[in-house]
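Key idea: predict the complex, not the pieces.
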Amino acid sequence: MKNGALIFLAVFVALGGSWCGFVLAPELQLGGAKQTTILNSSDVYPVGRPGEATQGSSVYRANGCAVCHTEQVRQTGITCEVVLTDAGKTPAAVTKVCVDIGVNMTDRTWPLPLPKTILTGLTKEEADAASGKITTAGGKVEIHIAATGPDIARGWGMRQSVAEDYLYDQPVQLGSLRAGPDLANAGARADANWQLLHLYAPKSVMKGSTMPPFRYLFEVRKIGREPSPDALKLPPEFAPHAGYEVVPTPEAMELAAYLSSLRATAPLYSAPIAP
Amino acid sequence: MSDELKSNISQPPDAGPTASRSTVPIWIILLTLLLLFLGAVYFDRHSGWFDKQVYAPYTSADELASYQPKSGEASMLAHGKAVYETYCGLCHGSDGLGKPAQAPPLAGSEWAAKDITSLARIPLAGLNGPIQVKGRDWNLSMAPMGASLSDADLAAVLTCIRESWGNKNGAVSADEVKAARAAISGHPPAAPNSPK
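Result:
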């Protein structure tokens, strides 16, 4: 073959370059990720999921939940709020400073009730400057840092997802299509009982839901001597015939446990929010 | 038959297509270099240099650091609580109520409200002899438990004692502990007396 060595070299460089970019570089960057601590606390993050939730991760995978749901919250910006927590011994001086820095003081009870959010939508520099002026005047302020972005506005999380959130996931089921809402904080929004109702009959708890019902994860059976304690408490239009009850299978319980364990709300160094 | 076709026929049949060499125009080289330069500048400003902590929208480790909430009293209190549990909690109790015939209470103790040097003297130099706490007399001895702690750790644990269990006596800074340590160095253990 003409130029065989050259073609081999070119293919090798092209594949090797992709491998370095897609495999080696992320491994060097994040491969050593380990537990970190929550901001301003000595609590470690993340902690492993409970066993039932770990099994539920497999149910999540088997049912293809990741086809329609993502598990990653994106963030496009950061915003700071200045909150007055204490007007100090000389409220008049603090009030004067607040007027100077353009605080909107329309209510008559100023500066009560405390704590009061006095400035919003600031950058860190602006917030620090305002905080410095008020502190000099004798007041006490806190600076709240919040994430912004479409996902945050939809209530899908407090902050963006970072690598530590997935430390104990195997495999990581990020998902790429959002036919349904993001689930990175599903456990923070609803409890396991809600998840079970939603899995059996999505429209029973969420009007207009387009999720298909996962009825095969439940067993509709005749009520025995006593009703099962796990039986779903469904609204009448979704309930089975009289004398029957809907009992979740172990898979449904595991999946609900997994969904309840999805909770990425802790403030971290790499995703600071406060408080 | 057109003239063009005639001229083709007139060429030798085995000539084959040929290509001539020409140099790359200088503007393409300059444009490529400019794009590379701009790309490098953008990378430098926005990449965070592959720092694993830096995610968009943060663009550098310094920017991320500037957004960290100030390690305020809350974190000092949390740290102080941990130190307290290691060194103090066994006798004085996690609830700061002390133990009969073992250690006087810290919760609501007037000693926690005294000046920082007087308070810091107890863990730094130890305490022997009678002492009155919350109207009761105690006569025990305490080893200098805090002498080996760093200024920051001792400040955190003193803050914990002054700000926990209903005490509201203000935080203690590491500098204040340093000053207290200097003030009492070489002095005998705290003279047992009641707070004035």
